[in-house]
Design a protein that fits this description.
alpha+beta; 5 helices; six-stranded mixed β-sheet; 3 domains; Seminal Fluid Protein  PDC-109 (Domain B)
Length: 446
Amino acid sequence: MVRCWEPLPDRTFRGMAEYRTDLDIRNRALQHCGASRIRALNEVGKNNSETAFCYGKLREAELRRNVWTFACRRTMLRAVDANTMLLNTSLWSPSTTYFVGSIAADQYGNLWISRIPNNLANDPLLSVYWEPYFGPLSVALYDSTIAYFVGELVYTTTGNGLARVYLSLQSDNADNPATATAYDATAVYMKNQVVTYLSVAYMSLIDLNTGNTPSSAPALWDAGTTYGAAATVGGSDGMIYSSVGGGNIGNDPTTDGGVNWTGTGVLNPWTTVFVSGAGSDKWLLIGGTEFPNGVGLMSLDITYPLGVGPSIQSVSRNIFKLPAGFLREASQNPKAGVTQWLGAPTGIVYNDWVLENGFLLTSDAGPLAYRFVCNVTDVSRMDAMFCEGLAARVALEVCEPLTQSTAKLGAIAKIYDEWMSNARAINAIEQGTEQPPDDDYVTCRL
């Protein structure tokens, strides 16, 4: 999902009514208690410390309590086998420049995936340049006989200790991720996409790059090269510059001020200098030797559950690693079977899924299109009625230490029951009816 609005600034109190950050919910809780609102995230005081301490805990508990439609996600899971690895992410750093597809962890352990190239100093918790990552945590060795689904992770290796990690950008993806995509004059390329032209790999420096032959793009400016008059180079700002005179060396065109270089006003579309690998445009490289700020891999040593894999077969149970941000299982197909007539079988069968120790156990060999409730931390993605109920739940916890009023505590309890009940009712209407699996007796009778 791509959001187009600008990032919100660090929020201080401005009297805004919309639920956008956790501070909005916490201030709504304080309003229920008749306590003064928090005016800054780093404010020193009991109101801030009490609400901050319980907010995250109660948010997770309320999310897990119900199958909220705004928190439901789907991802493809593949059974763990002897070659399966685990995704290894690093803590987000403000000094690291991230690429599209870079996955990093915040200080709470939640995973985020970068939406933009050159993502520098944008805290995932405070900007829209990151998306929450709720995809697979297991990474399968690429298999040329499999067509992969969108969002699946695979890795390739040459056997010398080096590996690349790829994310599939489309379903029914049978492309080899390491096979380069040839330049197409009719295609539209985005920044950081890589193509080959006359056996040379080029990376796009601009978005909406179309009709620009890669070989015609000037090389990037080099501090050690002497340029003659009218020589053209690409600047670090993505623009093309023309040298004013000869003997031009060591003068960065982006900071020269027009003395030695003239800006042409034209974007530089391609470069042969880049760190990501040249591969299929149906895959996104998110880690590996040429991707220094991407994800890594670590071995998956299974000691529990017992009596399962790691192998993909149906004799014993297979295991699937639960996805990132998993809170609880959701109905896998809530609308299935709703059009059956006069007691006819719905076609829905019981499954043998068992959740243990962060894994799903089943005799099914997969892959599984798994639907689950995720740990949503972005308040702007939450339903407003849920936020009202959560605010009342926070107020219940902080009311006594802040006000010592049992009368307010009772009033807030009624507010909580009302809002959460209404929120669950509306959520149930949106989700719709769910048919139970077919009864064996009824099925055989028919």
